[in-house]
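U., I forgot to send this yesterday:
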Amino acid sequence: VQVVESGGGMVQAGGSLRLSCAVSGLTIWYLTWAWYRQTPGGERTLVARLRWMDNTEFYIDSVKGRFSITKDNAKNTIFLQMYNLKPEDTAIYYCDEDPPDAGYWGQGTQVTVSS
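Result:
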């Protein structure tokens, strides 16, 4: 299984980014996938989850109304659309199953938001 996260970058506060997570080696449509983020010295924490059985979305409180998780089953790709970015969103973003028991995540993609 290979996971490749991309789409990160440097933006000013209030800006937008769309992250992509391309998965190969397994089919994502019947799995619950999520985006996580990690800051220097911090733990990797859940940001958003998309449940496979009914496409129920979950977001942590700090990103509700600003982030949107979606997927394209045909392309085996998960997305995270991020609007109105804030400096506290600065982190390396990863995707993996939820729970991430197998540790599929890739190298991550850096998101840096300047004030």
